[in-house]
Amino acid sequence: MLPQEIIRKKRDGRSLATGEIGAFVAGLGSGAVAGEQVAAFAMAVFLRGMTVPETIALTDAMTASGSVLDWSGLGLPGPTVDKHSTGGVGDNVSLMLAPLMAACGAFVPMISGRGLGHSGGTLDKLDSIPGYRTDPDLPLFRSVVREVGCAIIGQTADLAPADRRLYAIRDVTATVESIPLITASILSKKRAAGVGALVIDVKAGSGAFMAELADARDLARSLVAVANGGGLPARAVITDMNEPLASAAGNVLEVRNAIDYLTGEHRDGRLDTIVRELGVEMLMTAGLAPDEGAAQAMIEAALSSGAAAERFSRMVAALGGPPDLLEQPHMRLLDAPVWREVSGGPVGFVRAIDTRALGLAVVALGGGRTRPSDGIDPRVGFNRLAPIGSDTAAQPLGVVHAASEEQAERAAEALRTAYTIAPERPTTASPVLERIAGEQA
């Protein structure tokens, strides 16, 4: 089966057979398919699309291109479940949600990624915790999941290797935004992780990769249809990313924000809404709660009792981090040398935030990457970010954390520019925009 004939067929708008897709993906893994052919295939799919059966076949083939984890032999007394987010600014949900679900009886083998563009990455946040291993060997990963109930690590080299090659080529051929390719990329990694249920948080808004709600809806429906069609029970929630989710953006600052959330010291309203919403969906999808009311009660009990915080502390310690991180966060996490409070300028109310610009400002501070090889300064970023609707006379727009006075000045200006102030307080809405269950996909 010649790669060029498969490309020709898709280029001409015809559907590919499962065997043709499998052969092409096998060539991706073996190197039999040349880079130019991979690029042509990606562009053909970008322009012509794929049906749901085609996307299921592509997901299956990429999942099977490497190892697939199996949790059945551990005798876990509960279901395995995971969550995926399409990314945004101040999105530290995984840090709270994984231990929260573990405290509710689920087992969460969460394989996460690093920052991409303006959006932060869960692994970069965890790397800011001294000693925490985001790349443990498989026996340690399995042991922590079994003993603690959750472990958040990075993708291993043998999970969905075909996806890594295809994604690298998509990144440089302007084909990243293809919904079938995004769907197969996300789900092949989740399927390879061996989870039994999945909830997907698809962001929409100025800080999301899918800025328009219609595009986010199309992606969410594709992910749910392909996941369920391939045998992985899944639901999706479309959430608002027109402002940072947490009041912090930056690796150490988001870890501190997560600790405050888990301990009950402080919980940002929008963040709390999303954590609970995704938790409810995860518990129902995994079969741990019969309905929304029961799931909400389980979540409240896990938070108020301190059980979720305890799971986080145990996970950090089991993966090499400090055992007293929750008790001594300011002793264990690095501080930036320069802090600067940024006032709002004209008196009024926050009407809008250019969330993508805020994310890029964190990158410019050194808190993200412009190239894959770049290092990261975990200390820098923003906290105490004012949400939409806040009164600029009563609170600052935020606090800059920087490595130098010069960086702080540039970041302060970027923060002011990202905010739009109006004389009247705008109305605010729930950050949960839509829910998509399997039968609706």
Please specify the SSE layout and strand pairing:
Elements: H1 3-11, H2 18-30, H3 35-48, H4 52-63, E1 82-85, H5 93-103, E2 108-112, H6 122-127, H7 138-148, E3 150-154, H8 161-171, H9 179-192, E4 198-204, H10 213-229, E5 234-240, H11 251-263, H12 269-285, H13 292-304, H14 307-318, H15 329-332, E6 338-342, E7 349-353, H16 355-367, E8 381-383, E9 398-402, H17 405-418, E10 419-422, E11 432-436
Parallel strand pairs: 1-4, 2-3, 4-5
Antiparallel strand pairs: 5-11, 6-9, 7-10, 8-9
Helix pairs in contact: 1-3, 2-4, 2-8, 4-9, 4-10, 5-12, 5-14, 9-10, 12-13, 16-17
Detailed description of the structure:
By secondary structure, the chain is an alpha/beta fold. The chain folds into three domains: 3-49, Transferase, Pyrimidine Nucleoside Phosphorylase, Chain C (Transferase, Pyrimidine Nucleoside Phosphorylase, Chain A, domain 3, Up-down Bundle), CATH 1.20.970.10; 72-328 and 433-440, Nucleoside phosphorylase/phosphoribosyltransferase catalytic domain (Pyrimidine Nucleoside Phosphorylase, Chain A, domain 2, 3-Layer(aba) Sandwich), CATH 3.40.1030.10; 335-422, Aldehyde Oxidoreductase, domain 3. It has 17 helices and eleven strands. It has helices at residues 3-11, 18-30, 35-48, 52-63, 93-103, 122-127, 138-148, 161-171, 179-192, 213-229, 251-263, 269-285, 292-304, 307-318, 329-332, 355-367, 405-418; strands at 82-85, 108-112, 150-154, 198-204, 234-240, 338-342, 349-353, 381-383, 398-402, 419-422, 432-436. Helix 12 (269-285) crosses helix 13 (292-304).
